[in-house]
Fold this protein.
Amino acid sequence: MEIPLLIVSLIFLCFFSSALSSSVVTYLPGFQGPLPFYLETGYVEVDQDHGGEFFYYFIESENNPAEDPLLLWLTGGPRCSAFSGLVFEIGPLKFVAAEYNGSLPSLVYHPYSWTKIANVIFLDSPLGSGFSYSRKYEGYDANDTIWSEQAYKFLIQWLVEHPQFISNPLYIAGDSYAGKIVPMVAKRILDGIDEGKEPLLNLQGYIIGNPATGGKVDKNSKISYAHSMGIISDDFFEMIQKSCSGQAYENPTTSQCQMYLNSFTNSFLSEINEAHILEMYCPECRWKPLSSRASTTSGKRILKENQNILHPPLFPDQNCRCYVYALAYYWANNDIVRTALNVKKTTIWSLQGFFIPSGDHDLVVPFSGTKQWIKSLNSSIMEGWRSWHVGGQVAGYTMTYSNNLTFATVKGAGHTAPEYQPQECLAMIMRWISGELL
């Protein structure tokens, strides 16, 4: 028997107490004129004991908000701001890559935003990323399990205040390190439904792009991918294989294996752009995820070791893709911007069925490792390897499996595929969400 939406919403409110503050943003500094879409920002308390609050940006679908999917977007790192997803990947804003002269960087409308077809929540998570914060140091002590649980709690609290979206098709999405967290959040939603603790959320699937799957798979695939792309020679690859005896390159047990791995890193990886091996190498923005620089076992140590995130970044060459990342820092930490976004003054911004799209020129998390991880699931292949197209041209390659999994490569894309091939990725997600073949 179906329960009317009004009754469901009231039951929802009985089970969950709301702790949300939000505001509608109609103008943003650096953008000419009123925003051509609905933007809401706000905070949701996810850790009552330590005073932890997640900051979010919510953008309504530019098509049909009442019926279009609701997508919760998590960014990797860990502790990279979801603002990067908004302005560099799938959101309706982009920075103008003009030379920085001390004035506020400019923003323009991005025509290939996923908000063309979906309502999107960009969530700064875990605590310590973007404008999300904790009043106590201990609140930053968030492992993957805590992060996923708090993201789930955020979603429930947010829907308490936005009950009109409860029945919309729901997708959990993210890329890079968030590839570990997104499935955990989806599983938590399913568990909650099975336990009957809240009304049936209309979870339809999840999306993970160039996802981190684990040190063993990811590290091993970097070496084999580098070999397949001509970055290391046959002889060097064979020496690594021989000296490491097939062990996980993540934790070498012999000095000879370690020596070759150090050479791989220092002599080869150090001079290319790992996020996109064909793009310009820019040492100022060499790929260094926060997880490699700070432990997540101590909130105090996280803050102490990463004071560099509170200081202005070095500007790379203007031809570098990451030039706009520096612009984002100056824009997001401007007092006028923070006032427009209704950001709390105690925070400082820092950047750092299911579907798996992978940029095929990514050496941070190579697509070959993702394929290996998928193979380990032992799912039957429903549709074999084939090309998919946009505008009459090959946009990548795809396979589908019996467990409702779709894997797709995005030709020419780097570590965050929509950043590199936005038109193709929008076409891809439109087809997948609508149930069409890629």
Notes: The chain has one domain: 1-209+299-360+377-438. The longest helix spans residues 144-161. The first strand starts at residue 20 and ends at 25. Residues 1-209+299-360+377-438 form a domain with the Rossmann fold fold (CATH 3.40.50.1820).
